[in-house]
């Protein structure tokens, strides 16, 4: 759907609304106003957001803080922020009455091509783990090739902020909240990269099956020209995509790792052990990036070496520094047990105290507990809403495997217990395997607090290199 179509709907008496006033909601308002300055809009938001919106001085923007099915059903189109689930009761009731929900990602793609056509140069990246680093690394290497490249999307810059911008290539991170949005208007991405899929965000999607379906919408419904897929992920390996070419990574025929050495087929390209890509999963995703670059028609082999200059992203296995003999690692982005396991693997040869727990989304921690029977760190401290559930699951394993296990009320207490367990030697690893909601607004706030509690400057850890167009 294009913004001009919103105007036509409004001209015929249809009501147009925004739902959500975060980063994406503000970007949607700015984009709509830039193209449709006379379009009346309703903003569904909370009272604090209504006060903020009032400062804009937009006489055609009406705020409504009483969000329910009846109000949503009175709208022809609702431009919804990604964090608001379409499976919420009121949203589903309104959709059943004919209200159309659309996201900013769909509005942006509608400006790039007509339905059924390919939006040239767009590379959409998703996956349960590694999508942000993969997207940023893709942009980094495309820029090394000399292409004017945009880095945007879920990574921190809504696509609608770049509505009228031009670039040779678009490195776009998409969350599971946005992947289905790409398919809404029928515009096809040029390339779609999927790193892996395992359960996450079950509270938003409602079930694991729905999460997987929404994630795979980028492939099954958006129908990219070429899908770049991780051959080592069983869900991806089983896919058949009749409308897309499939380029695999992680196979002996394509880009893959043998130990720490990067190969293209049978040709060794470089040793990856010195790259600023913490975790084998990130070095594996370099294979996905190089495969995507080849899908764009570029010789990727000469670009692999440029990964040495990549600047890692904040809150993703981010070394903050050493305090009193202990290395502090901020992996606040970790929101699944699988992510915590991957973080532990990076430091498997070190003495580690791991902090886990946060908002409880009902994810199953049994596989994590099973892994601790043979691969436990020196100590684990549980915390947050799901901390007691994780503690109870780990308690018999800790007695059997012999690692220290304790429970904390909050992050500050968890840090104190972890430092005591380490006794001045090792790694203090925040990789919670759970969201931060409740205790913190988001994972960045949690990561900043972790840094501050360690005596590090929170502002110094925040920048995401390369955001925007360069």
Automatic annotation (TrEMBL):
It is found in: Cytoplasm. It catalyses: UDP-N-acetyl-alpha-D-muramoyl-L-alanine + D-glutamate + ATP = UDP-N-acetyl-alpha-D-muramoyl-L-alanyl-D-glutamate + ADP + phosphate + H(+); UDP-N-acetyl-alpha-D-muramoyl-L-alanine + L-glutamate + ATP = UDP-N-acetyl-alpha-D-muramoyl-L-alanyl-L-glutamate + ADP + phosphate + H(+). ATP binds at residues 127-133. Its main location: cytoplasm. GO terms for molecular function: UDP-N-acetylmuramoylalanine-D-glutamate ligase activity. Pathway: Cell wall biogenesis; peptidoglycan biosynthesis. Keywords: ATP-binding, Cell cycle, Cell division, Cell shape, Cell wall biogenesis/degradation, Cytoplasm, Ligase, Nucleotide-binding, Peptidoglycan synthesis. Residues 315-429 form the Mur ligase C-terminal domain. Residues 125-291 form the Mur ligase central domain. The keyword Nucleus does not apply. InterPro entries: Mur-like_cat_sf (IPR036565), Mur_ligase_C (IPR004101), Mur_ligase_C_dom_sf (IPR036615), Mur_ligase_cen (IPR013221), MurD (IPR005762), MurD2 (IPR043687). Gene3D superfamilies: Mur ligase, C-terminal domain, Mur-like, catalytic domain. It comes from the Bacteria. It holds the Pfam family Mur_ligase_C. Its EC number is 6.3.2.53. PANTHER family: UDP-N-ACETYLMURAMOYLALANINE--D-GLUTAMATE LIGASE. NCBIfam families: murD (TIGR01087). HAMAP family: MurD, MurD2_subfam. Cell wall formation. Catalyzes the addition of L-glutamate to the nucleotide precursor UDP-N-acetylmuramoyl-L-alanine. Cell wall formation. Catalyzes the addition of glutamate to the nucleotide precursor UDP-N-acetylmuramoyl-L-alanine (UMA). Belongs to the MurCDEF family. MurD2 subfamily. This is UDP-N-acetylmuramoyl-L-alanine--L-glutamate ligase. The lineage of its organism: Bacteria, Pseudomonadati, Pseudomonadota, Gammaproteobacteria, Lysobacterales.
